Amino acid sequence: MPEFARFTDLVRSLPATVPFVGPETQEHERGRPFRARLGANESAFGPSPAVVEAMTNAAPEAWKYGDARNIELRTALARHLGTEADTIMPGEGVDGLLGLLVRMIVEPGTPVVTSKGAYPTFDYHVAGFGGRFVRVDYRDDREDPEALSRAVRESGAPLVYFSNPDNPMGSWWDAETVTAFARGLPDMTMLLLDEAYGEMAPPGTLPPVEALIDRPNVVRMRTFSKAYGLAGMRIGYAFGAKETIAAFDKVRNHFGMTKLSQIAAVEALKDQAHLDTVLGEIETARRRISDIARQNGLTPLPSATNFVAIDCGRDGDYARAVLGELVARDVFVRMPSVAPLDRCIRVSAAPEAELAVFEAELPAALSAAAAVSRPA
Amino acid sequence: MPEFARFTDLVRSLPATVPFVGPETQEHERGRPFRARLGANESAFGPSPAVVEAMTNAAPEAWKYGDARNIELRTALARHLGTEADTIMPGEGVDGLLGLLVRMIVEPGTPVVTSKGAYPTFDYHVAGFGGRFVRVDYRDDREDPEALSRAVRESGAPLVYFSNPDNPMGSWWDAETVTAFARGLPDMTMLLLDEAYGEMAPPGTLPPVEALIDRPNVVRMRTFSKAYGLAGMRIGYAFGAKETIAAFDKVRNHFGMTKLSQIAAVEALKDQAHLDTVLGEIETARRRISDIARQNGLTPLPSATNFVAIDCGRDGDYARAVLGELVARDVFVRMPSVAPLDRCIRVSAAPEAELAVFEAELPAALSAAAAVSRPA
């Protein structure tokens, strides 16, 4: 049967795709579960017990729509960030908010600046609104603010993406560099500053809220999916100048957040002690993953996130083979998509039981990969 | 501070708005809670206890992203509907799915046919993508398939909205009429058939799945927000020809569903006994609301939904005054937005305790409204 003929030309030109193939999809296709879930940078350390209790208590109330204005969550976030509630817009994960911001700026042919190998879901949304990519290279495994700035000026792009700390490499810039990059952009260019991994970064990585809140062309995004252990509840938030944040009300799905997500997020913010515990666990896990890598002759990259990019020491084909062999051994991991980043695999911080599976399977995976992918 | 200057012309032209003001927003502004929550057609009869238990059990797993492909839910829905999983697309409520379907078809200036006073969130999405409205009148408090068909042919619109049963009037058409309307549309026009209230309608209201599943230009939408009592979990689904359904994968937020929502929906489908109980409660509540209306000299309209539209017997100003007086007495209700539908207020089915509050407050609300809004 042919596709409906009156979808827009843009939609008809798009592939039916998914930015990431989920572990459940892979398990379904493989016919068996993974033994270690280390690919999606989830937090297997889990949400706060107080969050679980709050969700449990709220479950019988799931018949009520959530508050369309997210008043309690925005108030709690405002207190947490030291800003005003009208500078904050929660949404269905950073992914959902990315899509909305892209929609507000990108039309067919609009140039958009990002880095080669940066977050695929951003690219998915840009493609979905017909944007034209202007891509710059990573430099020393970091996004390159100078090159991004130059590309913005040369292309006149109204939108540039920058992730700090970075996914998929785990690298980061100091707050001063990020602030200077942001403030140095033309007023006509929106900076989408993705700080999904911000809570795990060393002090001095995130610009203070007040450093950029006066810029109508800066939107920062954070999430409860990573350090707060609530990926499955889809809660992200954008913050920035209130006039810019108000624009989300023009296009968002106002009743899109689940009531349980709103409750979970408010409760998660209250339990900063749990967050601190998890941050300690993540640090321990990063060291453990790095040790495993080194024991196998590989090079772990420094990380300001809840994952470690491991340089497998050869090319992308080899790293892809290593990844394939790990997956075949029931270890779910992912890796960057483009050279030279794709010499690495990316392993999420997780409790010891899962890292032990990774440790046990990595040597055989490396041997098998070496057998199928010999160096030139 | 000025708005960011490079939002698209379309976005700059849109108001920052919300299709519905939520009860929490009103409570926040009033400074006190409602005593009866009868305005959003939620199901205060609640979700199945088995659903609550499943969500409770799953809460500690909320750190995992949900399955991007919704495999379990689609498989369960396919079994429930007697169709194939690839003809079904779950999403973040019907509201979210409406937005995606509109996005796939509507560009600035695209004509879109709908009824005056039909679902405001559909209109919100059409406006959000720059569509041009072609509106037809309700006829005898029902959507008018003949007039909609004619408007489609005259405007060449690629999209028409039809709700069965209807919100806000509670009216409905038989399956044969709906099927004939759908099959009679031009191939170049997509029918968005909103069946959010379908479970509550009399037998013979919903066309059988197979009656329309072969039409690439028909997408039907249903929800877990109404009869299943899960409005707060944001779970809707679209179903139709698989080529059409596949197109959602081009534009949707693949990881947008919460894991708990996926689990809740699968469990809700299993407990059809709970659904039957709720349907009985809804019928009892409809009769009760109708009796209260008649006791006060008002005329309840027949309803195939979980609400009753009550004709207040005069014009929109009077009905708006009645609504205002009910809200002032802590009874949350809503009403249609345009004449002649706006001679009615709309009251949701709910447990007796809340309906008793409505019964107690309605006489005073009517007296007060009569005092401020005298007939000509």
In N-to-C order, the SSE pattern of chain A is HHEHHEHEHEHEHEHEEHHHEEHEEH
Query: Mind telling me the CATH class of the largest domain in chain A?
Result: Alpha Beta
Q: How widely separated are the two ends of chain A?
A: 47 Å
User: Looking across the biggest beta sheet of chain A, what order are the strands in?
Assistant: 2-8-7-6-5-3-4
Query: What is the CATH fold-level name of the largest domain in chain A?
Result: Aspartate Aminotransferase, domain 2
CATH architecture of the largest domain in chain A: 3-Layer(aba) Sandwich
Q: How many domains comprise the coordinates of chain A? A: 2
Q: In terms of quaternary structure, what is this?
A: homodimer
User: What percentage of the residues of chain A does DSSP assign to strands (E)?
Assistant: 5-15%
Assign the CATH superfamily of the largest domain in chain A: Type I PLP-dependent aspartate aminotransferase-like (Major domain)
Number of helices of chain A: 14
Give start-end ranges of low-pLDDT stretches of chain A: none
Major sheet characteristics of chain A: 7 strands, mixed
User: Class by helix and strand content of chain A?
Assistant: alpha/beta
Task: State Rg of chain A.
Answer: 21 Å
Q: What share of the residues of chain A lie within helices?
A: 40-55%
What's the overall geometry of chain A? Answer: globular
